[in-house]
Amino acid sequence: MVAIIATSGTSMAYGADLWDETGTASLPPIVIIQPGESLVVSYHMEGIADLNEPHVYEYDVSVRSGSGSPTDIEITYPHNVTPTSDPFIDVGNITITKNASTPMDTVYTIQIKAGPQGLGAVIDAASRTNEVPEFPIIALPVATIIGLAFFLRRRKGE
Does the record carry Membrane as a key word (predicted)? Predict the structure, then answer.
């Protein structure tokens, strides 16, 4: 399994977050997508100063750990969103797809943002990232403790 850490960000002074497909609840900080599967999400905006203005979608995918590549993740979305109310949810218009040949050891950070045209790749406001511990970080201390317990029990029996 691969953890995909979904974040949303914007260069505007409004709050943004990724929600579930129906737009009823915020996504958890860590989302698991299996190779070849897709996840449909909604874009939630709150505290919007410029209603009825088009906000152009942009995204960035980076590898936090593992042997994968940012090109393993494909994101499809409409060109822009025009919020008509505050808060506003662009329901079910963003699809995150993980390629079938993606390595299993990779953790990605995905940042989706929407802002007025001309702002480019300025990223700030609503970012959410969580660290996912790698297997050896957890397994080695546990194996050491179990090994010591067996060793001490064996010495006690002698």
Answer: yes
- β-bridge partners, 41: 94
Instruction: Give which of 97, 63, 100, 62 is closest to 77, Cα–Cα.
Output: 97
* Residue 46, CB-side half-sphere exposure with 13 Å CA sphere: 9
Asked if residues 57 and 81 have their Cβ atoms less than 8 Å apart, the reply is: yes
Q: 113 lies in a domain?
A: yes
List, in order, residues 6 or more apart from 145 with CB less than 8 Å away: none
For residue 20, tell me if it sits in a domain.
Answer: yes
> What's the pLDDT band for 76 if we cut at 50, 70, 90?
very high
d(CA 6, CA 42): 12
- What tens digit of pLDDT does each residue of 139-150 get? 778 888 888 888
Spacing of C-alpha 13 from chain mean position? 21
The answer to whether residue 143 is domain-embedded is no
